[in-house]
Design goal:
By secondary structure, this protein is α/β, with parallel strands linked by helices. The protein is built from 13 helices and 16 strands. Bound molecules: zinc ion.
Length: about 425
């Protein structure tokens, strides 16, 4: 298929300014970029005037719940939610049932993905068997199946000696670690941030130090063993500053991610026990939001990841303490970043392309994609002049546990293309 996209404004990770040009695609690749390109015979032409052309996003932290929790999400529905949100690649977390802790389960999950997903799916593997924190998982076998990221996400690997040993072993195999940081004894029932709001609601809160202690511990373990440590979903100011301090030392390989919800919301948003604002780590304060944004702008955070965590309406309708942690993010992330940060001038498309497309791919050892001649067609068209209403009908995730439910935000993912295929095109 020949496709000519005309008058597109092209975004890249290297420049905040957008370049207006025509882009000719065929055989699943970008063939030509220039002004007033001639359309080959039979080519389809899409006039992209006013719209932004950029590489597809990549989410290095998603829970697609298969196997074991298919009532919440499946690899099929979760990857369709990704496409709906302009995301063309995902990394699964291993807290499924059974947990993804052996070559066999990795093989089964990747097989489901091959059969049911229209975008590339990568999976992480557990650090410990069953995520129980005792015995090492089948690290060697998982590496043989292509796994690079090891994590007990959902929980911290509680025993530092176990993590230390895993780091010594897996680093030699070219693998890295992703840490969910939380001292369980301090975090308690993990309902919400410890502060004014938890006192007002009368629920035992989780103090930020429950997270910060493990951020520091796990970076120290990586420092001692030579491992690469990736800190997941950082929620606090001091957590960000800890990572920044270690990065400035320059003698440990540490990367980190921030989720859109931790940039945008605070514990005050919980209001009347709204479980759509309950996640782990919890929402904290405005000062934390501001510090996390600062960390994203100065590169302390290498990437943005959603921590897409679907739960059924029944589960989320329980009382605040009983309801499970997590919100969905795949359908909403890119539009919400546009609405709250790009449209308001807090950052530009270059940051989004770098932090939500290029860097997460590099973390996984994949080449970043860009809008350049010779690159594979892995791209989206975004219309900043349109709006998206996140109705139940709009969202492709099986679950709709998101604070954005029924909100209308500025921006719309209009087209998603991967190789020869247009995966999404809005009328
Ligand atoms: Zn987590």
């Amino acid at each position: 298929m020949n496709l000519l996209i005309t008058n597109a404004r092209i975004a890249s990770e290297i420049s905040p300014s957008l370049t207006e040009a025509d882009v000719l695609l065929s055989d699943g690749k970008i063939q030509q970029i220039g002004k007033s390109l001639a359309a080959p015979d039979g080519a389809r032409i899409i006039d992209a005037a006013g719209r932004i052309l950029m590489p597809g996003m990549f989410d290095a932290h998603v829970h697609l719940r298969e196997p074991g929790f298919e009532t919440k999400e499946t690899i099929a529905t979760g990857t369709e939610a990704a496409i709906n949100g302009g995301i063309t690649g995902v990394v699964l977390m291993p807290n499924t049932s059974p947990a993804i802790d052996s070559a066999t389960v990795v093989g089964q999950v990747l097989d489901i993905a091959r059969r049911t997903a229209r975008i590339p799916v990568y999976t992480s593997g557990c650090v410990t068997k069953g995520r129980h924190g005792k015995e090492l998982s089948g690290i060697d076998g998982m590496r043989g199946q292509g796994v690079r990221m090891l994590t007990d996400d959902g929980d911290t690997t509680a025993d530092p000696a176990v993590l230390y040993r895993a780091m010594q072993y897996a680093t030699e195999l070219g693998m890295f670690f992703a840490s969910h940081c939380e001292v369980p004894e301090l975090a308690g029932p993990r309902a919400l941030n410890c502060g004014a709001m938890s006192y007002r609601l009368g629920i035992k809160g989780s103090p930020a130090c429950a997270e910060e202690i493990i951020i520091d511990r796990d970076i120290r373990l990586a420092h001692a063993t030579g491992a690469h440590i990736h800190i997941q979903h950082v929620s606090s100011k001091l957590g960000m500053e800890t990572i920044r301090w270690w990065k400035q030392r320059g003698d440990v390989k540490v990367t980190a991610e921030v989720a859109p919800h931790h940039l945008l919301f605070t514990d005050e948003d919980i209001g009347d026990f709204d479980t759509h604002y309950k996640m782990n780590p919890p929402l904290r304060t405005k000062a934390d939001n501001d510090a996390l944004l600062e960390g994203l702008l100065d590169g302390t955070f290498d990437l943005i990841a959603t921590d897409h965590a679907p739960h059924t309406p029944f589960e989320k309708s329980q009382d605040f303490v009983s309801a499970p942690n997590g919100i969905t993010g795949l359908d909403t992330a890119l539009v919400s970043l546009h609405h709250h940060f790009i449209a308001t001038g807090k950052f530009g498309w270059d940051l989004v392309v770098k932090r939500f497309s290029a860097e997460p791919r590099r973390l996984m050892g994949l080449p970043a994609v860009s809008i350049e001649v010779g690159q594979p067609a892995d791209l989206i068209l975004f219309d900043p002049g349109k709006e998206t209403t996140f109705s139940k009908e709009f969202m492709k995730s099986k679950s709709q546990n998101t604070p954005f439910l029924d909100q209308t935000l500025k921006g719309s993912v209009e087209l998603v293309m991967l190789g020869e295929n247009i995966l999404l095109e809005r009328a």
